[in-house]
Amino acid sequence: MSNEAATATTAAEAAPAPEPIPHGIGVSLQPADARAKTEGTFPYAADLWAEGLLWAAVLRSPHAHARIVSIDTSHAREMPGVRAVVTHEDVPGKPVHGRGRADRPVFASEVVRHHGEPIAAVAADHPDTARMAAAAVIVEYEVLDPVTDPEQAFEAEPLHPDGNLVRHIPLQHGDPSATGEIVVEGQYRIGRQDPAPIGAEAGLAVPRPDGGVELYLASTDPHADRDTAAACYGLEPERVKVVVTGVPGATADREDQGFQLPLGLLALKTGCPVKLTATREESFLGHVHRHPTLLRYRHHADAEGKLVKVEAQILLDAGAYADTSAEALAAAVGFACGPYVVPNAFIEGWAVRTNNPPSGHVRGEGAMQVCAAYEAQMDKLAKKLGVDPAELRLRNALATGDILPTGQTVTCPAPVAELLQAVRDFPLPDLPKDTPEDEWLLPGGPEGAGEPGAIRRGVGYGLGMVHMLGTEGADEVSTATVRVQDGVATVLCAAVETGQGFTTLARQIVQETLGIDEVHVAPVDTDQPPAGPGCRGRHTWVSGGAVERAAKMVRTQLLQPLAHKFGMSTELLQITDGKITSYDGVLSTTVTEAMDGKELWATAQCRPHPTEPLDEAGQGDAFVGMAFCAIRAVVDVDIELGSVRVVELALAQDVGRILNPAQLEARIEAGVTQGVGIALTENLRSARGLIRHPDLTGYALPTALDAPEIRIVKLVEERDVVAPFGAKAASAVPVVTSPAAVASAVRAATGRPVNRLPIRPQAAVVTDR
């Protein structure tokens, strides 16, 4: 051996072994698709292609309410390049659909109930031809007066065969005659927020040789979408397959089913693949929005500020169709008093149909609207009592073991007081200086028209709560399979990755349980067992729980032969960093050696404990679990112009258990920023039911420049014993809480009531200085 070789060998032997790459629960594992999304190579649904592709376009109603006198498709059918035109007459199966209640037509037939409702769809050999053909469909309308005020919907002519009332919940809890020494009242309005997904809806439908169809969609609930499509097409569910592809993130039900259904109809009619990519305007017109809400409140308290009774009326505008409005109303009524102890509560809630744009599931539905109202009431109560707003909230904070107005006992961790104390005691940010160098601190930025002398700083608080999983008896179940071969694990689960981090979590669970570094999560389609929709923290709980159970079953299969050989139980063996060891050190081997070329697999389900519907008095154990959040907002307000700058949001949240620190932090920050949009800018405006400016110019989303400093002050890890891993949903409760906190801070800065979201400039102007 040469001296050089000997030296190299000695150096290699002396070099320390590389540190193992951290993996498993509690590690900030990078998402598998992070690089592709960052570099722009991730394939979204809009990128789909197929041989012999046709292009689709949809004709939508220009009216909010009209009777359809006639539909003439002859001109469109005669255009060169047009392969098919479909209307309500071409729907072979069930003509209606809906997420919560099936009352929404695939195509309007006799009457139009909202602006943008689909009337017809066209397939052609070029996208421009398809759009021109859709415009060539002649529809004769008898325009009707729209019902746009939800309060008028009670007395208006029925807009739907089922009437205008979607649901009424008269919650009664405690003594109706109870009164307090201090009474405050208020009326509040919440605007219409749009999910505004990063990419508009897109999809591809491919006909199958058996007469069925495959739908390639950015679906968040593929099995529900498959079943809806099959019923519409008059096919057995087995002949319709949904393949999930390229979801660009979701903060609500990602896909508009009214968009998906014409796509498959056209593919079945033409026998060709058909692609449809919605414009941003069509996206705004088609999918559901957050429920605009009118709320009236009366709070009673004793002289010390302890709540005695809360009375409220809550009116949700469901828009033209029911969708998930019944469930949103249950959340609004159930959480109408907030995370506070209220011995007597009388809440009436209604959801009604109007001719406004359709409403449905958007992150924190129901809970967000009431949070803004009850926190405004707490501010009014504190002002009337002359008590610090944070102190008043602490005196009434909910805790584990307390009872909700629905009669349900809070059995999960509820560290509300601890969260509020953490943000209250966190140091406040420095005050801005009245110097030219620091003008960027003013509302409006460096070129803003404001004057430093008109700036007032305000500090406000928000306490919020949300439910996790479905409510009122919803069957929450998910199925997962874990397969291991040649040192590689594969997870099969129909839980869609919508940006909430499920695929990363699934990898971490398998790594933690089996000690295998390389874990892949298979693409989602409806050939797999159902996992349910990707909302309300479901997949962290039920799908993550199913993956964990399947992985533990594989672990038992792996360890059982070794345990039998050494005469011990599998509980005495542990897997760490790919090594299997026994408690006494007698056994030490690797997972790869133990596998010995075998293939192991297991399938498991996770189903949380059942809930029950609210009864006629609004009582019942309707919620599986709850999550809580406290936010302190600091704002600067130009009281002459009414412009608002959110300086800082300090947050404390109970998360149960931190599964992926980086991912959790990102989810919280995103939720807080979305809430800032609700508070200050986001409102999909309409006039007589017609959406005004359905684009990203007219709908003002917060940008990176609008995002405030977000300080995550405290994350309380008190595990929820009934949840897998003890973790709670992370992203919805900041969305619910931050608008209320911002509004509270603006009230503190201006002394104005601020009873509407988003906050209009005129609501923050102070004239009597």
Structure overview:
26% of the residues lie in helices and 26% in strands. It has 16 helices and 31 strands. It has 769 residues and is an alpha+beta fold. Strand 12 (213-217), helix 5 (222-233) and strand 13 form a beta-alpha-beta unit. The chain is globular and about 75 Å long. Strands 3-7-1-14-11-12-13 form a 7-stranded mixed beta sheet. The chain has a 6-stranded mixed beta sheet with strand order 9-17-16-15-10-31. Strands 18-26-27-30 form a 4-stranded mixed beta sheet, sandwiched between helices. Helix 5 (222-233) packs across helix 6 (257-270). Mean pLDDT is 90; it is low at 1-12.
Strand order of the largest sheet: 3-7-1-14-11-12-13
Biggest beta sheet attributes = 7 strands, mixed
Low-confidence stretches: 1-12
As a whole number of angstroms, the C-alpha radius of gyration is 28 Å
| Residue share in β-strands | 25-35%
- Overall average pLDDT: 90
- Helix and strand content put the structural class at alpha+beta
What is the strand tally? Answer: 31
Helix segment count?
16
Percent in helix: 25-40%
What spatial form do the alpha-carbon principal axes imply? globular
End-to-end gap: 91 Å
Short key terms for the protein model shown above:
single chain; 769 residues; alpha+beta; seven-stranded mixed sheet; six-stranded mixed sheet; 16 helices; 31 strands; disordered N terminus
